[in-house]
Amino acid sequence: MAAAVAAWALPVTFGRVVSACSRSIRRPPGPGAASLWSAPRRFRSQIASSPQGYVPKTSLSSPPWPETVLPEPAEETRHHAEVVGKVNELIATGQYGRLFAVVHFASHQWKVTSEDLILIENELDVACGERIRLEKVLLVGADNFTLLGKPLLGKDLVRVEATVIEKTESWPKINMKFKKRKNYKEEKKKISPEPTSASIFLYFVCGTPPQHSLVTGVQVHTQDLNLRTPGHQNGPDKLNHYAARLAP
Amino acid sequence: MVFLTVPLWLRSRLTDRYWRVQEVLRHARHFRGRKNRCYRLAVRAVTRAFVKCTRARRLKRRSMRTVSGPGDERKTGLWIRRITAASQEHGLKYPVFVGNLIKCQVELNRKVLADLAIYEPKTFKSLAALAKRRRQEGFAAALGDGKEPEGIFSRVVQYH
């Protein structure tokens, strides 16, 4: 009898673990779990009745990973709309200090602020002193909020502009090939053109608030929205007139 | 008849040997021992130095991301180690963090993620929160039975 009981205990606990797994993510178990329960259910009627779905706590009654509860979709949409509204308000009123952006340019990604210098390893067909607009913006952030692109942000949202300062040549890089004992030695001096671009100007294009669900970057920062302290994550707050630099 | 006296008398001799030697020795001035003075030894040392310099220029970029060595079981470079440390501060592991960020279509590379982790802690925290949430939605989609609505942060944006 003991052996028979032990043989039954296994399918019962297995069925319970499966149902507990799907229950741990806060969703009701579907039709797949029912077929695993039906066999042991017939035998359970002889056991003393317990409340429906009650599983006594054992080492196998719940899965070993922690149970996570995702928030309700309706409540979450409300929270998201509230956060997006706050960010739009901040952008529209211009209450941000220094902005930084992550820009993809010349096959590199650069983390850029205003008055930053970038050294690019190839030649651009641009004269010195001309203004360039860097269009592939992946991320824009200020002290209290960040906007992430999926993967790029819209061109009508941020403008990142740069001025080309100088176009120089690099120092002569030496390319040396050598094979020992074969009398093979080759040296080439490579001088590549290196234009330098300067003061990156970052500003929001006024008018269009963010449309997509880019709320993710804001979720964590909303606690800070109430504290308007002057310091920000880049360093001491220098100038606030960048906030007023919106597109004409 | 060919008169060879004049061409034999006008030999072409090397006049800029000093400068040719100096071109090599100036790259060897900071070396140790006789290699920084004697041309015959300096030539070999300078050649080896140039070859190592050429090779290192390509390995430098690689070493920031992966470092291959006998002692390393996991090949990690500077960027990856920094991102791991920063994500551990927020309770995530590096593969979880990076994998979930990519699933959310955030295409930031490791160099920029390391810079954000150092200089923009708030932004990094929000990225970690995003990765965590996407992970939970992934689990819900995998362990649930397919009848639930798909997560908000798992939505994929289509561009034309």
TrEMBL record, chain A:
GO MF term (any one): structural constituent of ribosome
Signal peptide residues on this chain, from the entry's feature table: 1-15
Keywords: Signal
Keyword Protein transport: no
One Pfam family matching this protein: Ribosomal_L21p
Entry GO CC: mitochondrial large ribosomal subunit
Alphabetized InterPro entries for the sequence: bL21-like, bL21-like_sf
PANTHER family the UniProt entry points to: 50S RIBOSOMAL PROTEIN L21 (PTHR21349), LARGE RIBOSOMAL SUBUNIT PROTEIN BL21M (PTHR21349:SF0)
Family affiliation: Belongs to the bacterial ribosomal protein bL21 family.
Name the UniProt record assigns to this protein: Large ribosomal subunit protein bL21m
UniProt organism field: Equus asinus (Donkey)
TrEMBL record, chain B:
Any Pfam family hit: Ribosomal_L20
GO molecular function: rRNA binding; structural constituent of ribosome
Gene name as annotated: MRPL20
Recorded GO CC terms: mitochondrial large ribosomal subunit
Keyword list, A-Z: Ribonucleoprotein, Ribosomal protein
Organism superkingdom: Eukaryota
BP GO terms, sorted: translation
Protein's UniProt name: Large ribosomal subunit protein bL20m
Signal peptide stretch: none
Family assignment from sequence similarity: Belongs to the bacterial ribosomal protein bL20 family.
